[in-house]
Sequence to fold (482 residues):
Amino acid sequence: MKSAWLGLMLLGVLVAWCGKLHLRDGGWAFADDAAYLDQRIAANVASGNGYAAIAGHPAPAIRDTLWRFLLAPLAGSTNGLFFSVLLGIVFAALSVVAASRLAKHLNPSSGAASAVLAATFSGLAVAAWSGLSDALAALLVTSAVASHLGSFESQQEPLSFRAAVLVGLAVLLRAEFGLVWLIFWLHAMIVAALRKGDREMQLVVLRGLNGALVIALALAPLLSINLKATGVPWPAWPGPTPERTGFAAAFALAHQATALRSVIPLLLLWAALALLAWRGFREKEPAAGLFPVLLYMLVPIFFAAAAFGLGWAAAPSFFRAFAPVWLAILAAGLCSAPGVGRFGFGIAVLLLAFSIPSSLAQIESATADVQAAVDRREMLEDVLANPLNSFKTVATDDPGWMGTRGGFNVFDLTGETIKETLAPVQRGDFDGVVDAAREAKCDALILWREKDASWADRFPHKIITRPGKLPLVARLNWTATP
Fold:
């Protein structure tokens, strides 16, 4: 904790500055509609209406289930949005501490440098104000990695139960986080093989199976919710898919969440991985030397392999959770350079000077997104204020805020919250989505995303708002032809 104080102070300043701009430009508003969808599901859970965003339509538990249950106590009240931000700030601060602890397992002098990098380059200040589960995911993943490395120290047994529980909790946010345990297991088996200990290998296999059981138990309630909502154990998440997919794209996405996506920081990370591997094998500590390289290589590969069945929609949020981990590895590697280790705190101060501009740019960009979202919602409010634009059921691609606003029923075109559109979206059958909207007697269409604007051509509609402007608002007439 002592080595993380500089990072925590810096995070506090950045969170305060982000909050000042956020409240000035957007008030208690979020840019991402998913934050409002989380609030709606949490409110229904708290009121006893089940795991659902829309009354009578059970939602599948394919993302952020743990986060939604944490929000439930105050969701739906005037303090609900404030509570999500408060949780985000707490989890962001704990993520900085976890990153410092992780780096110290790799290099004892790198804790302060890691805390500074995690507080600035990982986007935790923005995540705290996003209303999303990003800060919680970062905390669970970073803590799990730190616990795994810690289990190889002080004669502790590998594959700790604590790491398994943390991965199990992360699975309650994204099923793909279960891949982390496979990497832990493989790493422990390689280390046992290098040590040539038959008893240790048997222990690793047994404890790996125990951890897999913990993760399976975490998945069990989600499978039950999904079977009730959709009839299948795990539907693919129907969210937006990245433009590029595949193994090469997975490696690119793994860096986009942090400043490591540019050339120089990426080269520094590669150098850090090489230094840690060299230091680990030089000091006969294969566990610490091998693990960062193994994690860096296998996280994108395993995710890309799993995405063939689970889809690519979770990729951005999945890789964002690893940002503090990569930054902790970078800090530990920098402090492993010959003659640098004793200057760990000095490196932290130097990194602080370089990180401030990047952090402020991140915050300015996030604040601009919030302001843009608020402006579009105000535009929609002006349209709906006209008595002629009174609707009963609205088909939309952003069901979170629309449902929170009230005044009409919401029909989710994305398939994330209702099974009527989930199956057609997964098949790519948009005519099936239109048919479902017709059966639901939708009398309006409101589209928020630019990539979805072309959907309007598939509906029999009359545009109310100015063409080319979002949100697109149209009145539906099912007696006409599109």
Summary: The first strand starts at residue 52 and ends at 54. Strands lie at 52-54, 57-58, 393-396, 409-412, 444-447, 461-463, 472-476. The longest helix spans residues 344-384. The CA atoms of residues 60 and 226 lie 5 Å apart.
